[in-house]
Amino acid sequence: MMDDSTQGDDAPTRMERLSAVRPRLLAFARLHLRDAALAEDAVQDALMAAIEKDASFAGRSGYETWVFGILKYKILDSLRAQKRQGKLMPLEDEGDDEAIDRQFQHNGRWQEEARPSSWGEPEAVFESERFWQVFDACLIALPDSAARVFSLRELMGLSTAEICQALEIRENNCWVILHRARLRLRACLEKGWLKEGTT
Amino acid sequence: MMMCRQATRLMSLRQDRKLSLGEALSLRMHLAMCGACRQCDRQFTLLHEAGRRRADSLFASRSDRE
C-alpha cells in the first residue's frame, strides 16, 4: 500500500487515482460550499495536501476515503474563512418557514395532504436508483443554510457541536435548522419519489 | 399534550443528540398514538442512513469503478 511514484505499472498511480476521484470530490465540495469557484479551491487544496502528505497515508482505509477525509477539513476551512470575511449568510436569516407551515395545521397536527406515508423497507428504498436521484435533487433544492448544515451533519457525519463551532452559531440554531431541513426533505422525497408511481 | 409539529422536533433532535428522559417519554407517548408521526420518525431515520450511504458511495475506495 505504501507505493509511491516508483510503483509497478499495472496498478494505477496515486496521481491517476487522484484525477479519477476529482469529479466526485468536486461534486461533494459544491454541495457544501454552493459556489463553483470556492469548491474548486477546496478540492485543489485537498489534492495538494494529499500529494504532500502522501507518505502519511497509512493504508488502513482506502486511498480515496483518505483523500475525502482531507477534503472535509478543507471545506470546513473554507466555511470558516467565509464566515470571517462576513461572506457567509447568517444562518438564522432564512426564517422562511412556509414550506414547513404548509405541512401542519394551526393546531400542530399534520395537514391531510402532508401526512407522512410509508416508504417501505429501508433496504428496498436504498436499492432504488430513482430514490437517489430524487434525494440528490431534494438536497439541492434546500435553502443554502439548511443544505449546508444538513450535509455537514448527515453526509460528513460531524456532530452538531462541531458544526456550531465551525459556523459560529449556537447549537440550538443547528437543531432548528436540521429540523426544518429534514421536514423539507421528507416532503420533497415523498412528492418526488413516492407519489410518482401513481402519476 | 404534544402535537405532531412539536413531536417532529424531538424526532429530528434524537438524530443529533440523546433525548432527555422527559423528551423521550413524551415522544414515545405521542408515537404510540400517532401513525403519521411513526412514519415521519422512520423517514428521519432513513434520511440519516441515506446521508451516510450517499457519502460512502461518493467516496468509498472503488478505483476499479472509475
Description:
The complex is a heterodimer of chains A (199) and B (66). Chain A has helices spanning 14-33, 36-52, 63-84, 98-101, 122-127, 129-141, 144-155, 160-167, 171-194. With 199 residues, chain A is mainly alpha-helical. Chain A has two domains: 14-84, Rna Polymerase Sigma Factor, Chain: A (Orthogonal Bundle), CATH 1.10.1740; 91-198, Arc Repressor Mutant, subunit A, CATH 1.10.10.10. In chain A, helix 6 (129-141) packs across helix 9. The radius of gyration of chain A is 20 Å and the shape is globular. Chain B has helices spanning 4-13, 21-33, 35-59. In chain B, helix 1 (4-13) crosses helix 2 (21-33) and helix 1 packs parallel to helix 3 (35-59). Chain B contains three helices and no strands. Chain B has one domain (4-58). Chain B has 66 residues and is mostly helical.
Descriptors for this entry?
heterodimer; A: 199 residues; mainly alpha; Rna Polymerase Sigma Factor, Chain: A; Arc Repressor Mutant, subunit A; 2 domains; 9 helices; 63% helix; globular; disordered N terminus; B: 66 residues; elongated; disordered C terminus
